[in-house]
């Protein structure tokens, strides 16, 4: 339970320190990991004992019934120390597990995969020819497809043979079966191949990135880890990164026939400057669905393709005056009867679910109303029921619902706050993770009648730890936007032992990016912002126009002008807060990371009469430096929208800096390149502006590793104490 400011009790005497967050893990919450529903829908499995055990549980009782795999008891196992992830084959006679993961980018990695046979209790490597990527069982469980060195392979479990099926893969040139950097980052997936539903074929996307320009990054020796071979001369890591308006990969879709050992190219049209963000098999192994998106990302088509001939036709088409939201791609779902598909659309002004037949005709809107749905969990053909989450009760809270074919709706998550669920395969049970701003996650098992079966994790131990500290609660408020009529969602945390007769420094924390959400009734953890309230700061968070959960017009009003309305709103909100008698109007700061760094650096320049201090971490300083898919979705190309790119680029506001600015960036940031910070720093230097800067050797966009996080946040606190407090 959080303690209201001024109500500290004698027992709550411990002081927060930065070590609690970045070294000791004092406030780390617990979860339930690796949940997999088994085929019978009556049992599920969980990864336990720090990845060493897979334990089987009963949904009905919530009790453990068997240990399916224990690495410490497998005879002769000296290679697999822990399991990172796992999957069952079709009849659950084997497991495919991954270990020794080496990250590549945000979602991609190489790993060592092993096959565990339940019958003979043997654990064998998938391949002896080098680490693999994306290993996936075929639907019939007889084969495993995987990727290595930009090529696709198939392993036959019965004959223990490995077959290579593509041969032109080459680093920085051709990728078969995995997305290139920009697809992975902005279309949010890491596997670009799919098994046919009967295992007879594999469809895959081929990326030709030979015309995409390379971006080089110097890699120094560094520490934690140290790259010894770079001790004297740095190496250069160069990879394909299409910036806004530049050439993208040329993509094509192919189907490999397992029996015939032949590969056929699918017809996706003559236009080559386009995107294929997803491929999905229908229930028919001869019919492949291909999502085709134009480069402007305002026209989406679902192509229904004959996998045997490559011939395609348009099954579904949607156009939008702004852009197509990327969540539509994941929500394409083909029903088991082979007669229908489900898709999400914002055509009503809100994100909703729709049912279509296989001729492309809309049958009905499954959900409707002045609210957005968030997640589509699936369709139960037995109950004829759809499962989804939405913000219909409040943009600050998310609940999960079931709605049947007649439109009768049932709420499945009775606890107030932010809800996520994991369903059993037959939808008879579900595991609900719920939290709110004052309470860490509680994980409960429910049956289909919304009756709780068992609490799997209540984080009671963390609750008891929190009781020893005086923690400022979040107060949810609304603040007028710059237009004077739109109300923005916000929260504020006042100092411990708050005195309304004193004036405190204010730090605004925000992210502000399109369709993002920082202000919500969910557990954000006890973190460094709580430490600041202990040290006498007021902290506020604001979601400006352009953020999530409030309909399409609110979400997309920043189109073609990223940064303008968001910074206008942040400046207006800061002014509104600074008028409060308990806030020192001369000590108003703002900080943010990534898009939030773009905003904080822009706000201290554009709002130099309001903000005296800003921290910008890994900021975009001009969107010409950022990637094609993200930037053009919201801004079109620099050639089409020069004004939109230039007017709110921090680079072009450098001469307006009056206050204190701290810039921090990792030199190996593959996402927002350190180029952004270097170029802004040079503009500031030539404008005669003083600023502080922290550069982090070999660190990526998240800037962590070894002692890095503790040093970084200590720098933040010292900077604020010097300039704001």
From TrEMBL:
Keywords: Glycoprotein, Hydrolase, Protease. This is Dipeptidyl-peptidase IV. It comes from the Bacteria. Gene3D superfamilies: alpha/beta hydrolase (3.40.50.1820), Dipeptidylpeptidase IV, N-terminal domain (2.140.10.30). GO terms for biological process: proteolysis. It comes from Odoribacter laneus YIT 12061. Residues 530-725 form the Peptidase S9 prolyl oligopeptidase catalytic domain. Pfam families: DPPIV_N, Peptidase_S9. Residues 90-441 form the Dipeptidylpeptidase IV N-terminal domain. One of its GO terms (molecular function) is dipeptidyl-peptidase activity. PROSITE patterns: PRO_ENDOPEP_SER.
């Amino acid at each position: 339970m959080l303690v209201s400011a001024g109500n500290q009790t004698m027992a709550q005497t411990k002081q927060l320190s930065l070590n609690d967050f970045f070294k000791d893990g004092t406030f780390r919450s617990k979860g339930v990991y690796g949940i997999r529903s088994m085929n019978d829908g009556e049992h599920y499995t969980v990864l336990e004992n720090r990845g060493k055990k897979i334990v089987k549980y009963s949904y009905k009782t919530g009790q453990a019934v068997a240990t399916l795999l224990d690495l410490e008891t497998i005879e002769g196992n000296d290679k697999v120390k822990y399991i990172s992830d796992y999957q069952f084959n079709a009849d659950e006679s084997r497991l495919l597990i991954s270990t020794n993961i080496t990250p590549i980018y945000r979602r991609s990695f190489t790993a060592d995969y092993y096959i565990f046979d339940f019958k003979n209790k043997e654990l064998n490597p998938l391949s002896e020819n080098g680490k693999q990527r994306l290993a996936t069982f075929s639907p019939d469980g007889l084969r495993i497809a995987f990727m290595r060195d930009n090529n696709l392979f198939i392993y036959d479990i019965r004959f223990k043979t490995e077959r290579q099926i593509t041969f032109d893969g080459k680093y920085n040139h051709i990728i078969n079966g995995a997305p290139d950097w920009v697809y992975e980052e902005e279309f949010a997936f890491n596997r670009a191949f799919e098994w046919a539903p009967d295992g007879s074929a594999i469809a895959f996307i081929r990326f030709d990135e030979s015309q995409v320009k390379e971006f080089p990054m110097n890699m120094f020796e560094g520490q934690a880890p140290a790259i010894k071979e770079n001790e004297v001369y740095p190496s250069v890591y160069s990879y394909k990164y299409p910036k806004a308006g530049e050439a993208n990969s040329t993509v094509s879709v192919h189907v490999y026939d397992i029996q015939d050992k032949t590969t056929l190219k699918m017809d996706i049209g003559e236009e080559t400057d386009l995107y294929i963000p997803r491929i999905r098999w229908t229930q028919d192994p001869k019919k492949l669905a291909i999502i085709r998106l134009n480069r402007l990302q305002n026209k989406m088509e679902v192509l229904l393709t004959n996998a045997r001939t490559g011939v395609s036709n348009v099954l579904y088409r949607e156009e939008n005056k702004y852009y197509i939201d990327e969540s539509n791609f994941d929500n394409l779902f083909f029903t088991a009867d082979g007669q229908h598909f489900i898709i999400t659309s914002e055509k009503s002004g809100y994100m909703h679910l729709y049912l279509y037949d296989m001729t492309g005709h809309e049958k009905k809107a499954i959900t409707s109303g002045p609210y957005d749905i968030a997640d589509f969990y699936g369709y139960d053909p037995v109950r004829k029921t759809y499962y989804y989450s939405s913000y219909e009760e409040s943009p600050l809270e998310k609940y999960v619902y079931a709605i049947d074919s007649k439109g009768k709706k049932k709420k499945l998550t009775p606890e107030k706050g932010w809800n996520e669920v994991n369903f059993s395969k037959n939808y008879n049970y579900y595991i609900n993770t719920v939290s709110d701003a004052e309470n860490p996650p509680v994980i409960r098992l429910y049956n289909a009648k919304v009756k709780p079966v068992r609490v799997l994790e209540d984080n009671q131990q963390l609750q008891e730890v929190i009781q020893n500290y005086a923690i400022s609660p979040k107060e949810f408020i609304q603040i007028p936007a710059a237009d004077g009529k739109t109300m923005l969602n916000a929260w504020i945390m006042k100092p411990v032992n708050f005195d309304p007769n004193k004036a405190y420094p204010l730090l605004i924390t925000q992210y502000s990016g399109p369709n993002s959400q920082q202000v919500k009734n969910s557990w954000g953890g006890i973190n460094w912002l709580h430490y600041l309230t202990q040290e006498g700061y007021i902290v506020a968070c604001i979601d400006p126009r352009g953020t999530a959960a409030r309909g399409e017009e609110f979400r997309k009003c920043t189109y073609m002008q990223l940064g303008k309305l968001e910074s206008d709103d942040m400046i207006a909100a800061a002014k509104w807060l600074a008028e409060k008698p308990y806030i020192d109007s001369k000590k108003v700061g703002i900080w943010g990371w990534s898009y939030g760094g773009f905003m904080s650096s822009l706000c201290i320049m554009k709002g130099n009469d309001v903000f005296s201090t800003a921290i910008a971490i890994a900021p975009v300083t001009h969107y010409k430096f950022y990637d094609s898919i993200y930037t053009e979705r919201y801004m079109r190309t620099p050639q089409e929208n020069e004004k939109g790119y230039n007017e709110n680029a921090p680079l072009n506001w450098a001469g307006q800096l009056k206050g204190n600015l701290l810039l921090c960036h990792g030199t190996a940031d593959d996402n927002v390149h350190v180029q952004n910070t270097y170029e802004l720093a040079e503009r500031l230097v030539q404008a005669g502006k003083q600023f502080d800067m922290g550069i982090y050797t070999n660190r990526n966009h998240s800037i962590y590793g070894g002692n890095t996080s503790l040093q970084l946040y200590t720098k933040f606190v010292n900077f604020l104490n010097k300039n704001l407090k």
